[in-house]
Amino acid sequence: MGKVSGDARLRTAGGNIALRGATGRVDANTAGGDIELENISGSIDARTAGGAIRAELVPTGKGASELKTAGGRIRLAIPENAKASIEAVIRIEGRWGSRKERYDIRSDFPAATYDKRDDYEEIHATYLLNGGGERIYLETVNSDIEIRKLRR
User: Is the overall model pTM greater than 0.85, yes or no?
Assistant: First the structure.
């Protein structure tokens, strides 16, 4: 899709979702594809059971965001001046658990906390951008998370 003024609700049972812009709340859900969200001013609820999520988000203070996938990389780009509290979690499951060193959370921002929790089979990090603010939760299984400065 192109750019949407206001909220957007996008769903598919087995395909990719791509949105080139929105001002408001974006709800994107697919059971088996990638989600690509560009130029989003507002908040995001993006979920996929078997794909990657790539999002450009400018938080506006009007709601929390959540990006979750059960089997793909998450890449979030956010402005350097955003006020945000980001929590990132990688869960290590199944036969890949013994290879947890393969996965990582990488960020252009300094982490407030970073912990590879062997007892919980997860990697967990928090980032407080500009003192913290809008809540953003990122979660994947057996993959990587990247948090980058939004370049425009």
Answer: yes
